[in-house]
Amino acid sequence: MSHLQQTFDISEFQKLLDTAMAAVQARPVGFSVAAIASALGGYSLKRLLAPSAYSNLDGPPRKDFVYGHLKEIVMPYNIAFHDSLQDTYGSVSKVYGTFGSEHLFVSDPRFMHEVLVKEADTVFRHMQYFYDMNNATFGPGLISSADAESGVYCEAYEILIADDMKQAMIKDLGGTRSKEIDMLRWCSSTALELIGTAGIGHSFGILHGVESEYSDAIKNYFPALAQIAPMRSLFPAIYRMGPSWLQEKLAEWAPSAAIREMKHIVDVQERQAQDILSQKKKALDSADKSKDMNDIMSVLLKANMEAREEDRLPEDQLLGQMNTLIFAGHETTSGALTRTLHLLASHTAIQDRLRAELQETSGSLSYDELNALPYLDALCREVLRLYTPSPYIERVALKDWLVPLKYPVKGKDGSLISEIHVRKGTKIYVSIKEANRSRETWGEDADEFKPERWLGELPQSVADARTPGIYSSMMTFSGGPRSCIGFKFSILEMKIVLSTLVKSFKFAPGSVDIDWLACIVRTPYTAGTKDVFAEGSNQPRSSPMNHLNAAHELVEETVACGNIQRQDTYLGLRVASLFIILATSIFGASFPVLASRLQIFSEHKSVFEGAKYFGSGVIIATAFIHLLAPAVEKLGSACLKGVWEEYPWAPAMAMVSVFGIFFVELAAFRLGTAKLDSLGIKGYHNHGTTQTSSVKDNAGGLMPASEVPTTATKSTGSSDSELGLKEQLSLQNGITESALAQLLGVAILEFGVVFHSVLIGMTLAVDEDFIVLFIVLIFHQMFEGLGLGTRLASLDLPKSYQSWVPYAGALLYGLTTPVGIAAGLGIPGTFDSISAGILLYTGLVELLAHEFIFNPAMHRAPIGKLLYACIMMVLGAGIMALIGRWA
């Protein structure tokens, strides 16, 4: 009987099951919705009927049963809500999550120590969706594994990128002294380059104009993640829904634009990581290349390759570590840098004080030197304290636990609560921001931006709080085993960039006001933005047209004012440069003279002709490139105030110099002519056809004076004997008018060149980039000396002058730059302007005009000779102008 009853029961149950399955197959959507609704209804009823775990703990009233306070806490406009929780309810308050769940919002130091340090990972750990989401986006890495340890220490790297950032910003200024530019763009690019170079040994090239899809993807990660934050509790279930290819398809088909954007970000990141990993593996196969690969990722790969087969990390974990390094070192640091510059733009007194401290230093600073700058250190600490990039972190209780409080809070019944019985499953929001602005810890001025607080003694309450943060008693980099592993690198990065930029630029507020909203990390948006997730919000935030994310500052290029700080590096080589440049300069200026005297190239006069014309080009390029351009820059310096700001003094001084030299030459010629007239010597006209003996009329141009043929044209009414007598008298009385003209022209040239050479020596004595400048100036002095030497060699002087004047000129030129090096000081802006005028007049009038326009020999010269002269002149000017890129 029992057997028959059992058979009957099974068959009846099977019929009911078949009927139910048929109904589900007929209306699958309806039954699915009904099942989900029933489950949610049951869960909600359970939440409503369950007694409160924190009945006496105060907090804001619940407005929405479905979302609770979730939107106020995690959505971008949450900062004011966080502040109100701290100010109204104290260091611990109760907030509501989805469907009536109770959460804790915490900033109490002792509570944070229990959660983050003492019972980390055993009682309190990250939410499961934190691990699942990071594993899906970055791969298995330090922040995507519950078992990961923060054993990687991020050593400080030398300055690699900051100067590139400065140069990119100068280029962005477009030649103007002041312009509004997007600082978020440059800070983000610089942070990515720094962590790319130091972390994985790869440059993305963004600061040099290379477009990077990866850069745009990683910058859009947090905005996209913030958009789906309210749904993140569902992620663990979705993450385990079938194989990875199915999850990818579901992401592609998702109706949410944010989910599709996240899928795109993951794809871009994975492709880039695969390419970089392949390149690094190939490089490590080469012993020559691998020995110089000292970035964090290369060290990890080397260790992995040397490990036993069973101990090696699989490729997906290597990719995960790489993505984690880039992600962790990029977004928060770029936000902190942008925030600091935004604060400096609004607090000019703080900016000026920082600049004054930085201008007392010179050159690139080491890690220890950067940390020895007290105000720079105080500024970084205060920015990181008051404006922490991440407002909060999350943990969940794995079991019931009793947690003590440092600062007791008042319960609903008026009693003081000094410990909290945390129930298993409770989500805990650890508020980094509120812990850093706690008046109980930091004093009544905790909300004020005061870098100087770090220059003196902090309140005793800071030490008494025993905040578990790993950096300077603040929670910015969290605490415990899961604190930020690269915080020292992040701080160093801030100091390097700030020390470079604030020295070179002044920052002022842009034309658009900025609000800092929390898309997981705090990000700048145009003030008044109502919907950060509106159409276009996932565009690259560096785009100037994207007003949803912008941190535009008015940037003005500046210079260091005050006394020039002598650079003591390479002191031995600086001393040696006295003698090296002395020898080079004398050789360059004396070689044409010696070659002319010894007739080394007597059968190849074209060599000297080429050198002469080459030298003319060198002198003209020196005037324009090496003198006038730097003079315009120096006399237009922001350090010069008053009348210096109101007029273009550099070209004005050059113009006055031109006229001054012209009047000096005119007066000298008149005096010389009067003297020759008194001796009965007539007939010389420098720009006409009647000339006495002149080296400028002979084809060789650099023949010895004794071999230069005398050519003279008779004046009307003059006999041969009369002309011969006048020539004889001129030689007997010392020096001809032609020789006087040459002497005067070379003297003017020598004065301009000498003046410039002294200043070059001064620059070499104090310039920071000594090595490059030293090499360039050796060539600079050689070419300029050749230009001067060819003119000295071409002088047609009486023997009493011919024997020593050219050598004296070469020696004087050789001595000037070493004298300038020894002096190491001066006012080169004004002197360069005067020297530019001298050399412009000499080059254009004394050399080009006399050599080409007023020289009858050149009028009748073959076209080949004229073309040769022009090519050599342009070549000399071109090479000297190219050297001007460095000198």
TrEMBL record:
Superkingdom classification of source: Eukaryota
TM region positions: 575-598, 610-629, 649-669, 739-764, 770-792, 804-827, 833-854, 866-886
InterPro entries named in the record: Cyt_P450 (IPR001128), Cyt_P450_CS (IPR017972), Cyt_P450_E_grp-I (IPR002401), Cyt_P450_sf (IPR036396), Cytochrome_P450_monoxygenase (IPR050121), ZIP (IPR003689)
Amino-acid positions noted as binding heme in the UniProt annotation, renumbered to this chain: 484
Key words of the record: Heme, Iron, Membrane, Metal-binding, Monooxygenase, Oxidoreductase, Transmembrane, Transmembrane helix
Topology term for the membrane: Multi-pass membrane protein
One GO cellular component term: membrane
Protein name, as recorded: Rhizoctonia solani AG1-IB WGS project CAOJ00000000 data, isolate 7/3/14, contig 19614
Organism: Thanatephorus cucumeris (strain AG1-IB / isolate 7/3/14)
Lineage of origin: Eukaryota, Fungi, Dikarya, Basidiomycota, Agaricomycotina
